[in-house]
Amino acid sequence: MGERCVIDVVNLNSFYGGRQVLHDITFSIARNEVTVIMGVSGCGKTTLLRHLVGLKKTGPGQLFLEGEDIGGFNVAAMNRYRRRIGVLFQSGALFNSMTVAENIAVPLSVHSRLAAETIRIIATIKLHQVGLSQFRDYMPSQLSGGMQKRAGLARALAMDPEILFVDEPSSGLDPITAAGLDELILELRDTLGMTIIVVTHELESAFRIADQIVMLDRGRLLAAGTVEQIKANPDERVIQFLQRQAEQKQDDNQKYLERLLGESELHLQA
Amino acid sequence: MHLQLERTSPGEIVCYLQGTVDRQTVPAIRRKLLRSARETGVSQMVVDLAKVSALDTAAVAMLVELLRVLAEKRGKLRLVGLNEQTTKMIRLSRLDALFHLDPHATSGS
Question: For chain B, which domains are there?
């Protein structure tokens, strides 16, 4: 655990009921860098994110913030941690009964003594950063999925968090808007020295923004390193992922056919 | 308090900000700045950021509010003494045009 590292994940195991979804995951997240967590759907990316933001309980000795065991945090320590982080969930997770600007204002109203007018201006600034300032008085239901996601990012940024977690920022966005968000992520790192963790399966975006890529495969750490190190990684599954070989799709297709025809029928067809 | 005010002429006030200006310190600074801006006869305020080590979006929002209060009475706001971080922060907020950024200006110039 070096001083450069904000978060250290050490042999993290995770379960849903009796099913193990993460196996002995170990890596570190460096300060002021963009760490991209990658892998095909169902590889455990979002579960890992849920541990990192404290939404899924982590056992002791598996997750450390600046050397302190997050697994041992009491409620007050966990709340202090949550005030230091911003999170954009896959869905955007906006409050439907509030306008977009009111959504952005929520964390500031709850966690600061700022005047209402200051908060109103901050909300407009944050919405402008994600290209939505003209929609500040809209209700979330009046926005497209991609716009809701951008509004969610504006809310995650409202407190200028030290650490920003972003789940699938590019999904549902057109390529130009997605590239704009990538630029914003890099700008946040460079301007505010923000530590940013992005969960994505978009290779192009990952290569554009990552200082470090952490690649998961079926709940296990497949590889971790810089973009160049990942590109040069000789592991067959890394190569498959990078070349977008559709092994996962083939697996899915095989299971789909089995479900349709039954195993015996499938043998007959072979 | 991270703020010092100096009346340099009947219509001008120079505000020296210091240290970290963020959502913790902004409420108190804002009250003083806005009170000064609303004083009769004040038509220009100069905010000197030379000794500011860091500012966040709350600080930028406070400056926007100050600019608006002055603009309502046809006054002006000038930012001077910006360093790399403060300039970047204002640019990140897409407000460089609004504040006519001049990173080399000082309060004496």
Answer: 2-102 (3.30.750.24)
ipTM of this predicted structure: 0.91
Threshold 0.80, pTM exceeds:
yes
Q: Identify the CA nearest to A94 among candidates A168, A146, A19, A42.
A: A146
User: What is the pairing mode between strands A19-30 and A5-16?
Assistant: antiparallel
CB-CB contact of B15 with B3 (8 Å)? yes
The sign of the torsion formed by the CA atoms of A236, A29, A23, A244 equals: negative
Compute the distance between CA of residue A70 and CA of residue A50 in angstroms, rounded to an integer.
13
Pick among B56, B64, B84, B92 to test the A interface (most A CBs inside 10 A):
B92
At A143 the three-state DSSP class reads coil
A118, A129, A188 ranked by CB distance to B61: nearest: A118
Residues near A240 by beta carbon (within 8 Å), at least 6 away in sequence: A247
Cα A222 from Cα A44, distance rounded (Å):
12
- Per-residue pLDDT of B22-58, as tens digits, reads 999 999 999 999 999 998 888 999 999 999 998 999 9
Count Cβ–Cβ pairs < 8 Å, chain A vs chain B: 57
Residue B25 to chain A, least CA–CA distance (Å): 9
The amino acid sitting at A109 is: S
> Is residue A128 within 8 angstroms of chain B, CB to CB?
yes
